[in-house]
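So, can you check these tokens?
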Amino acid sequence: MEEQVLVVPRVRLFSGEAFFGFSGGNPEKYLAVVKAYRSFRDRSSVEHDPSWKQIIPYVVLTWNDRIFATRRLSTQTEERLHNLISVGIGGHINPCDGTGDDVLERAMLRELEEEMILPWKPEASLAGFLNDDTTDVGSVHFGLVYRIECPAPDVAVRERDKMIGEFLTFGEARSRVKQMESWSRFVVEAPELVVHG
């Protein structure tokens, strides 16, 4: 059976002009729309159709003044993101994540568990949203940015054959911005997410 992903019609998500980049204001506005108009569709039917936005939980791990960054290797499935640096861990929401109001958080925790080894229970808070209609990938995705402040730097990438990772200061991350996917650029340049710069 084909993978199904959670989507929201673009016209419902954005009643007018869509924002560009990171938006940290009014989380209830977008959450209410996602909860009211979400549905599951075959991934192949929405992967290149910008009239649908695939909802992606995007987890940012921070520790003191550092942010966790990964580089996606060519063995990773999303070819459009190969060798780019990312400061977010995330993926599609699937029917296995449930249909209740907690589906977004359940999907976020599942993706985190699939991609990272955390020796402690994560506590995430919704920090904002990501949108970039200027790229093929961005035009069909909408990010929910969750932030987890790590109690220690003892995290590791689970699938080391697909990506490598390390903690960087926000300054180091900003110096590598040209090597980053657009969502990661938005995150490291968002003043409300930077800890001690």
